Amino acid sequence: MLAKEMETYITGGSAVRAMFEEGARLAAKYGRENVYDFSLGNPNIPAPGAVNDAIRAVLDEEESTFVHGYMTNAGYPDVRRAVAEDLNRRFGTDYSEANILMTVGAAGGLNTILRVLLDPEDEVIVFAPYFSEYNFYVRGARGVIRPIPADPETFRPDPEALRKAITPRTKVLLLNNPNNPTGVVYAAETLRAIAAVLTEKSAEIGHPIYILSDEPYRELVYDAVSVPWIPALYPDTVVGYSWSKSLSLPGERIGYLCIPASCADFPVMFDAAVAVSRTLGFVNAPSLIQRAVMRSLGARTDIEAYDRNRQALYKGLTDLGFRCAPPQGAFYLWVQAPDGDDVTFAQRGMEHRILMVRGSGFGCAGYVRLAYCVSHDMILRSLPAFEKLAKEYNLK
Ligand code: PLP
Fold first, then answer.
1. Which ligand 1 atom lies nearest to the CA of residue 108?
2. 286 exposed, middle or buried (CB, 10 Å; 0-12, 13-18, 19+)?
């Protein structure tokens, strides 16, 4: 007999994955070119050539038993040092390998640090809409997720709503910037106001409330928007990063946690994270790709291609009368269901072979998410189908 908890894992299975499977079914029936699948955040841009070159160079130049062997659980010291120096160059920080723990993607890092920080029933605040997997990460760490409803005008966090949501059990504010699913980027001004609330409330409740900043889309920003480095604004911040999106390497499972020395409980927190990543069974981040990302820290994905998609989709949909949050980062467009019913909207989209993920899956009904990490051609081909959908809703 399975653990009782498995029931919620299975019934609460990922809406995104379900759409992905539906897409495969429709493609088999109508042909792939006649299905407009905006469901999955799987980068369509190949990893930069520099990454593949780096993998080859690692295999050619480094000792096989070293490259494929165990290393210290936190990751190769030279890799961690290179990551720290890269952050120092970009954000004026003074990190060393003692602050960087290599992880199995962002998911591995977030699961690890939540285990480190949460006692059973401790609360993790998130701003809706939020990445649905957070429900499972928090539950897995025996915590309780406390979503704050979205501000439907801006989809930016509201510091005053945060103040009201904090209780003596609040341990973590889990932020995601740039944001999946809205594409919104939180500005320094908003984050400063959040930091002020957290500083005040941490003093009041008698323990630090940590920010856990989930940043797999950090480099995917448009129009010269900048993504603030949150540890510079709030000392009790842990940053989770991965190269899944920024270098199109989601299957390689590689990322890191940055735990600054300014965090309360540093360095014990770092040692605890290393111990937890062992007990979760990760043991260490995948070895070969650790060595390869060290050699490709300066590589960047083809952001212009995402930007072209972003502009075409945003313009195409707003011209048809759909309302969308202005997308500044990541590769998602957040679209309002014209009559406020996202479930029906997603279903009606499917009748035109448009696959969109309903917002209720992200804790925010009334909207759908479109992932535009797809071919530009598919976006152009999808617009007549969106036009039919717009007509059904009498838009324009
Ligand atoms: N956080 C957010 C906001 C994401 O969108 C994703 C993946 O889509 C993850 C974390 C997980 O990233 P990774 O594949 O690196 O574990």
1. 16
2. middle
Strands 354-355 and 36-37: parallel
pLDDT of residue 63: 97
**253 residue type, one letter:** R
CATH of domain 4-48+301-392: 3.90.1150.10
pTM of whole model > 0.85? yes
Beta bridge partners of 241: 256
List all residues whose CB is within 6 A of at least one atom of ligand 1.
Answer: 41, 105-107, 131, 176, 180, 214, 216, 242, 244, 250, 255
Whole-angstrom distance, CA of residue 4 vs CA of residue 114: 22
* Alpha carbon separation from 135 to 123, 128, 256 (Å, rounded): 12, 12, 21
**What is residue 13's predicted lDDT score, i.e. its pLDDT?**
58
In the reported structure, the alpha carbon of residue 103 is separated from the centroid of ligand 1 by a whole-number distance in angstroms of 12
Residue 304 structure tokens: 């212009």
- Break the chain into its structural domains and give their ranges: 4-48+301-392, 49-294
- Say which CATH architecture domain 49-294 belongs to: 3-Layer(aba) Sandwich (3.40)
